[in-house]
Specification:
This protein has 13 helices and five strands. Helix 1 crosses helix 3, helix 3 packs across helix 4 (about 70-75) and helix 6 packs parallel to helix 7 (about 160-170). It is extended, with a radius of gyration of 39 Å. By secondary structure, it is mainly alpha-helical. The protein has helices at about 15-25, 40-50, 55-65, 70-75, 100, 105-115, 160-170, 185-195, 215-220, 260-305, 320-330, 350-360, 375-390; strands at about 90-95, 120-125, 130-135, 145-150, 150-155. The longest helix has about 45 residues, at about 260-305. Helix content is about 40%, strand content about 5%. Among the domains are: about 15-75, Orthogonal Bundle (Arc Repressor Mutant, subunit A); about 90-185, Glutaredoxin (3-Layer(aba) Sandwich); about 210-230 and about 265-270, no CATH class. Strand 4 and strand 5 form a beta hairpin. It has a five-stranded mixed beta sheet with strand order 2-3-1-4-5, covered by helices on one side.
Length: about 400
């Protein structure tokens, strides 16, 4: 793939020297002609080198995919995981959404702001920590939660625990998370988000699963609930649908489960419950189908009665403007007088409307006052009224008022 000859702009050339080979590897994952779908992982790949989606990163993605920079920018500015400015080695995210907020998430975030001296999407002077508040981190059962580079780091977080963690990160340590994968740098995480596996031995299995995550399994074990005929040692089938006649699906049924008296008893209970549930769903579906058929039959009968022996009217298909013009002047033998003085207009329904209509006569023909003969008369009458008011004494209400510099008490 390194032999591929591509032309890059001056802005994209420096990144092309470093990222072209992995970029072409990412694009090759997609079907021919669908390379543009690789834009998301390519933007993560850019961040492994730049630390954010830089202008030359946008240019590189545009050149390697054959699209313009505006199309790349539209995607890069839509998702919050694509950073618009340089980001620190560790991105610390504090959930401040509804449940985490109620459980103290905002307090955790505020204490970190005070301690680090930075706000949302800002980085400490040593370049170690970038702080942000997140709308949701999808872990409400552990609220409030704090993640480091998108991996869960602290569950049921407190301000003291969060401050202690960031100080360990700033000193060069990588503390063990409460659950999930081992903490890595942001650039290492971006490489994983681009579609590459974590190369650190055992890193993914470091953090244990939390109790809320295992709650369903625990309850099933306590109450003896199990899936009928299920054996955890059964291999996962590799059957896939065939695309054409030449492709054959491979089926691996795996070992057959061993049946014992205990599994027979548990399987019978689960099967009976499932059978009852399926019967209830089937009955409800049949009732809905029956109602739909009744309404459809009734509607068909009404339509047959209404249109029996008559030709169905398909309606007027003329242009609305043409139809309106023909209604106003069917023969086109005289000028259109809609809206002129002969148009009576709406009849007032009360004295207030009558007074308003009398004081605000229309100019006619839908034109402003002054554009028609009637409009000229309205303007003339209005000007004359203003002249009569001008000859009267100004501010008659104040003519007898006493003037002075002091207010009389």
């Amino acid at each position: 793939m390194t032999d591929t000859k591509m032309e890059f702009s001056e802005a994209a050339a420096p990144l092309a020297e470093k990222l072209l080979e992995p970029a072409l590897e990412i694009i090759a994952r997609y079907p021919a002609g669908r390379g543009r779908s690789a834009l998301l992982p390519l933007l993560h790949l850019v961040q492994t080198e730049e630390g954010h989606v830089s202008p030359r990163g946008v240019a590189f993605c545009a050149d390697v995919l054959g699209i313009n920079k505006a199309q790349v920018g539209a995607v890069a500015t839509f998702y919050t995981m694509y950073k618009r400015r340089p980001t620190g080695e560790y991105l610390v995210s504090v959930c401040t959404n509804t449940l985490c907020n109620v459980m103290g998430g905002q307090e955790v975030y505020d204490e970190l702001v005070e301690h680090l001296g930075v706000g949302h999407d800002e980085t400490t002077p040593d370049g170690r920590i970038t702080l942000e508040h997140a709308e949701c981190l999808a872990a409400c059962d552990y609220a409030p939660v704090v993640t480091v580079n998108y991996d869960f780091a602290i569950d049921e977080a407190t301000p003291e625990a969060a401050i202690g963690m960031v100080e360990r990160l700033r000193s060069g340590e990588r503390p063990m998370p409460s659950r999930g994968a081992r903490i890595c740098s942001l650039r290492e995480m971006q490489f994983q988000l681009a579609g590459y596996a974590d190369e650190r031995d055992g890193a993914v299995a470091d953090g244990p699963a939390g109790a809320p995550t295992l709650r369903g399994v625990t309850l099933a074990q306590q109450h003896g609930i199990a899936v009928a005929d299920f054996d955890p040692d059964t291999a996962i089938a590799t059957t896939k649908p065939a695309r054409d006649d030449s492709a054959k699906a491979v089926s691996d049924p795996g070992p057959q489960p061993r049946r014992t008296a205990e599994t027979e008893s548990k399987g019978g209970k689960v099967a009976s419950v499932a059978k009852k549930a399926a019967g209830a769903v089937r009955a409800a579906a049949e009732a809905v189908v029956e109602k739909v058929e009744e309404r459809r039959t009734a509607r068909s009968a009404d339509q047959a009665t209404d249109h029996a022996g008559r030709t169905t009217d398909t309606g007027d298909v003329k242009d609305p403007e043409v139809r309106t013009a023909e209604q106003r002047n069917p023969t086109m033998g005289e000028p259109d007088r809609t809206g002129d003085a002969e148009d009576a207009g709406p009849v007032p329904t009360n004295p207030a409307e009558a007074a308003g209509v009398a004081a605000n006569r229309t100019a006619g023909d839908g034109k402003p006052a002054g554009d028609t003969e009637q409009g000229d008369s309205i303007v003339s009458e209005t000007n004359a009224a203003h002249e009569r008011q001008g000859t009267q004494q100004e501010n008659p209400g104040w003519s007898g008022a006493q003037r002075g510099t002091e207010e009389k008490k």
